[in-house]
Amino acid sequence: MTNRSVRIRVPGTSANCGPGFDAIGLACTVYNDLELTLLKEPELSITIEGEGAQNIPCDNRNIVWRSVQYLLRKAKLDKEYPGAIIHMENNVPLSRGLGSSATAIVAGLKAANVLIGNRFNRRELLQFATDIEGHPDNVAPAIFGGFTISTVTRGNVECFTFMPKFRMKLVVAVPDFPLSTRKARAVLPEKVPMKDAVNNIGRAAMLVAALCKGNDKFLRNVFEDALHQPYRAELIPGMYDVFQAARKAGALGANLSGAGPCLIAYTLEKRECEEAVGEAMKKAFQQHGVASKILIMDLDNRGAHIVNENKE
């Protein structure tokens, strides 16, 4: 009898979505694939293709393997499966604000869960992923797809997921430099002014309402943020100029993707302006000496899912 294996596909994600700091996220149509085989021998083989292949550790530090082990410990099967064969095919840019670590965590948890007979449901996987990542804003859309709104109450995660009432295109400018989440969080203040908190509460609520009701006219001003973008702007040359260029080219709005440095703009599919928006964002970055590439994507509506499974 051969060892069972499974191939899992997980979408990249964007967190914050403007005013929804650490609460709102979305899944987009760029994917990382993971093939996992659990072994009953203490052997570990990790191979990586694509984004981050030269930088991601291929030993016990690997976040996919650590996530697999986490789930096996929860199932009390870590002694039964002390080893694994892991193959990663990555398309999500590393350390750019598109949830690369979240895709790895969710892929490891999902793949291991499938191989032990789906002992845990998606809500439990969300809790595990949040415990590993530290916050749910990227792991939630990676699991569920679409837009997600997450809260944590005394350590317990709750997540609401939905697809907007109109079709959107996501235009992402990926600059040619990485930015660690740790560095991006280090520039944030411990306290913020009341007016900035009010600004974000109102806009985050308006964003969700407009998406759920399908009323795009209310999206023009909702992506503005006062809690994290002003402090992170110094880390991303030309950030506000890129936002302005995107809007002038027809975008509904634009914001920092997660902790950055990717910048994401939102357009309505019917307006067919995403190519112009991408070009405008790229040119604005160039004016500040930053090279970038443009990704034009849709919202992913599936989240993490099985591509194929070997049940021999």
From TrEMBL:
<dbReference type="InterPro" id="IPR006203">
    <property type="entry name" value="GHMP_knse_ATP-bd_CS"/>
</dbReference>
<dbReference type="InterPro" id="IPR006204">
    <property type="entry name" value="GHMP_kinase_N_dom"/>
</dbReference>
<dbReference type="Pfam" id="PF08544">
    <property type="entry name" value="GHMP_kinases_C"/>
</dbReference>
<dbReference type="GO" id="GO:0004413">
    <property type="term" value="F:homoserine kinase activity"/>
</dbReference>
<dbReference type="GO" id="GO:0005737">
    <property type="term" value="C:cytoplasm"/>
</dbReference>
<comment type="function">
    <text>Catalyzes the ATP-dependent phosphorylation of L-homoserine to L-homoserine phosphate.</text>
</comment>
<protein>
    <recommendedName>
        <fullName>Homoserine kinase</fullName>
        <ecNumber>2.7.1.39</ecNumber>
    </recommendedName>
</protein>
<dbReference type="GO" id="GO:0005524">
    <property type="term" value="F:ATP binding"/>
</dbReference>
<feature type="domain" description="GHMP kinase N-terminal">
    <location>
        <begin position="62"/>
        <end position="146"/>
    </location>
</feature>
<dbReference type="InterPro" id="IPR000870">
    <property type="entry name" value="Homoserine_kinase"/>
</dbReference>
<dbReference type="Pfam" id="PF00288">
    <property type="entry name" value="GHMP_kinases_N"/>
</dbReference>
<comment type="similarity">
    <text>Belongs to the GHMP kinase family. Homoserine kinase subfamily.</text>
</comment>
<comment type="pathway">
    <text>Amino-acid biosynthesis; L-threonine biosynthesis; L-threonine from L-aspartate: step 4/5.</text>
</comment>
<dbReference type="InterPro" id="IPR036554">
    <property type="entry name" value="GHMP_kinase_C_sf"/>
</dbReference>
<feature type="binding site">
    <location>
        <begin position="93"/>
        <end position="103"/>
    </location>
    <ligand>
        <name>ATP</name>
    </ligand>
</feature>
<keyword id="KW-0547">Nucleotide-binding</keyword>
<dbReference type="GO" id="GO:0009088">
    <property type="term" value="P:threonine biosynthetic process"/>
</dbReference>
<dbReference type="InterPro" id="IPR020568">
    <property type="entry name" value="Ribosomal_Su5_D2-typ_SF"/>
</dbReference>
<keyword id="KW-0067">ATP-binding</keyword>
<keyword id="KW-0808">Transferase</keyword>
<dbReference type="InterPro" id="IPR014721">
    <property type="entry name" value="Ribsml_uS5_D2-typ_fold_subgr"/>
</dbReference>
<keyword id="KW-0028">Amino-acid biosynthesis</keyword>
<dbReference type="InterPro" id="IPR013750">
    <property type="entry name" value="GHMP_kinase_C_dom"/>
</dbReference>
<keyword id="KW-0791">Threonine biosynthesis</keyword>
<keyword id="KW-0418">Kinase</keyword>
<keyword id="KW-0963">Cytoplasm</keyword>
<feature type="domain" description="GHMP kinase C-terminal">
    <location>
        <begin position="218"/>
        <end position="284"/>
    </location>
</feature>
